[in-house]
Structure formats: structure tokens, C-alpha cells
Design brief:
By secondary structure, this protein is an alpha+beta fold. α2 links the parallel β1 and β2. α1 packs across α2. The C terminus is likely disordered.
């Protein structure tokens, strides 16, 4: 039953247990968001951060870059890091990976409560 499988995946990605879904591959082509896959399950579950690479040949580089960035900066800085990579790629100062990263990022108010104020994963307090 494909609906059951999608529900199971969505439940596994519930926002109270999942802060980010990083898909190390391009999303499949779909006419709408009714396609049952990890991306739509994450959206339905309310996962605050979803990242993926739109270019299959750069998937391994994307996975390495994400692992490095997330080890260097707090998650709240990821949009800035992606923006910097896109800007550098446009100006020719960096590898083309920056042109192929997609990021869905809810604001800090959407970070699940158990991560708020917890060091590198927590939302910035103002």
C-alpha cells in the first residue's frame, strides 16, 4: 500500500525527532507534490530544513560539502553558507556546486523545541 509507506516515512521524519533532511541526490521529476518520496514526506512532516543537489554528477561533492559545513557552522547559518556558494559560483570564484544546491529552510521559530538553545543546533536567541 503506497499510502501506508508514505505515512510511515512521514512519521519517521516527524519534526520533533528530525531537524534536517539532507538528500544527497537530485529529486525525481514529478508533476506535483503528490508523488510519494522522501521530499514530500519531509514537507508533510514539517521537517524544518531540507537540502538537496539538483545535479546528479555533483551528488558526492554535495554530500561532502554538507557534512563539512554542518561540522563547521551552526545549522542556522546554512542558508548563508548556501548563498555564499551560489554567489561565488556565479562570479566564477568557486566550483559550480553552488548553482545546484536547493534549500528549504523554515525560520528559527520552526526549529523543534527540544533543539532550541542547544548549542550548534539551537535557534539564535535575540
Amino acid at each position: 500500500d503506497p499510502d501506508l509507506a508514505a505515512n510511515v516515512l512521514r512519521d519517521q521524519l516527524r519534526p520533533d525527532s528530525t531537524l534536517m533532511l539532507c538528500l544527497g541526490y537530485p529529486l525525481g521529476e514529478a508533476a506535483d507534490l503528490t508523488t510519494l518520496d522522501a521530499f514530500t514526506a519531509a514537507l508533510a512532516a514539517g521537517v524544518p530544513v531540507i537540502a538537496w543537489c539538483r545535479e546528479a554528477r555533483l551528488a558526492a561533492e554535495f554530500r561532502r560539502a554538507m557534512a563539512g559545513w554542518l561540522g563547521e557552522v551552526p545549522l542556522r547559518e546554512l542558508p548563508r553558507r548556501v548563498f555564499e556558494q551560489r554567489s561565488a559560483a556565479r562570479s566564477g570564484d568557486a566550483a559550480e556546486l553552488g548553482r545546484h544546491i536547493s534549500l528549504v529552510f523554515c525560520d528559527a521559530d520552526r526549529i523543534p523545541h527540544q533543539y532550541v538553545g542547544r548549542g550548534r543546533l539551537g535557534a539564535r536567541s535575540t
